[in-house]
Amino acid sequence: MIVFTVHERAHPAADRIERAEELRFVRDGFSWAACVFGPFWMLAHGLWLIAAVYIALTFGSAAGLDALAVVPVWSALVSAALNVLLGFEATSLRRWALERRGWQMVGTVSGRSRAECERRFFEAWLPGEPAIRPSIESARALRSEGLSGQPMSRLVDVART
Predict the structure, then answer these.
(1) DSSP designation for 150
(2) DSSP string computed for 64-132
(3) pTM assigned to the model
């Protein structure tokens, strides 16, 4: 089974189809691409800060081990361990970066493939979403005015008489 978390922008589009196209599906589990191509994977996903920390850790550990006159094999093992750790934490780092940018997690879904996960998510998510999400201004207007365009307090007064 494959598990994905689904994330949406802080200020999504009004149309639910446009909102659906903007959703990000982040797969849970080990990332071989992040393990093998660490910095390139990070830059491809826009994880600039994490890439800078990774590069600093890599060069810092290499310089520290070199200053301690450790056998070069240990330096390679530390680098490999850092890459394996990155592979395990890659999806958590992507979620963290999305959350930092204001994205919100709207759900999780599991299935046998990405296509099945997307289908399952949209089958459950789309029926509950309005075709067009009202803007903040129109939602305030609907709350303060009735369907006839008169203020709600006026409609309540008319109903009491």
Answers:
(1) S
(2) HHHHTT--HHHHHHHHHHHHHHHHHHHHHHHHHHHHHTT-EEEEEEEESSHHHHHHHHHHHHGGGS-SB
(3) 0.69
